[in-house]
Amino acid sequence: MLRRPTYPAILETRKEIEKHINELLDMDVIRMIGHNEIVEITTPVLITWHDGNFRLCGDFRALNKYTKADRYPIPRIPHALDKMEKARYITKMNCTKGSHQNGVKPNPMKLLIIICHMGRYEYIRMPFGIKNAPAHLQRMMDTIFQEEILEGWMVV
Questions:
Q1: How far apart are CA 48 and CA 11, in angstroms?
Q2: 87 within a domain of the structure (yes/no)
Q3: What is the per-residue pLDDT for 94?
Q4: What Gene3D superfamilies is this protein classified in (predicted)?
Q5: Quick one: which of 35, 118, 141, 154 has the fewest CB in 10 Å?
Q6: Is the pLDDT of residue 66 over 80?
Q7: 84 occurs within a structural domain
């Protein structure tokens, strides 16, 4: 069973969860679902980001335990820097909330549900906290920019 108990949230945390839930709804990353559906649920967790801001993740540890690891290679920073050593120009693209760039197929959606004081929400785009999300995003970037990478003028 993947169902996890909800964590108690103090008022400050509840306000931050509300802010993130509303943002995810506006971005079409999640949608509200009914309470009659029998689903596996988890609770949202706020992670403090390097800049002091928060990121909302689901506590998907139980799901991740049963997920077969995707061994798609993630580039190492020193390797990427070596490739840029003789570059004349360097620019940076930022995939805002990278995991959310990938859609989720209907069957897995039933496993990607969070519950909080605002209700139940189903992820329709890849959430943070899923074991294979980084590999999936890297594969997507490598596919989209395949030509540019092969020509040697882009490092992903």
A1: 17
A2: no
A3: 75
A4: 3.30.70.270, HIV Type 1 Reverse Transcriptase, subunit A, domain 1 (3.10.10.10)
A5: 35
A6: yes
A7: no
Task: Read off the pLDDT band of 40 (50, 70, 90).
Answer: low
Closest to 68 (Cα-Cα) out of 147, 132, 146:
132
pLDDT of residue 128: 86
Distance CA 136, CA 67 (A): 13
CATH number of domain containing 28:
3.10.10.10
Q: What is the pTM of this model?
A: 0.79
In sequence order, what DSSP letters do the residues of 98-151 get, joined into one string? GGGGSB--HHHHTT-EEEETTEEEEESBPPTT-TTHHHHHHHHHHHHTHHHHHT
CA 70 to CA 42: how far, in whole Å? 22
In a domain, 37, yes or no: yes
**Is 47 domain-assigned?**
yes
- More reliable by pLDDT, 43 or 105: 105
Closest Cα to residue 110, out of 90, 124, 89? 124
Residues 129 and 56: their CA atoms lie apart, in Å, by 9
Phi, psi of 85 (to 5 degrees): -55, -45
* Residue 110 CB partners (closer than 8 Å, separation 6+): 39, 40, 122
- State the residue range of the domain holding 126: 11-74+100-138
Give residue 2's pLDDT: 59
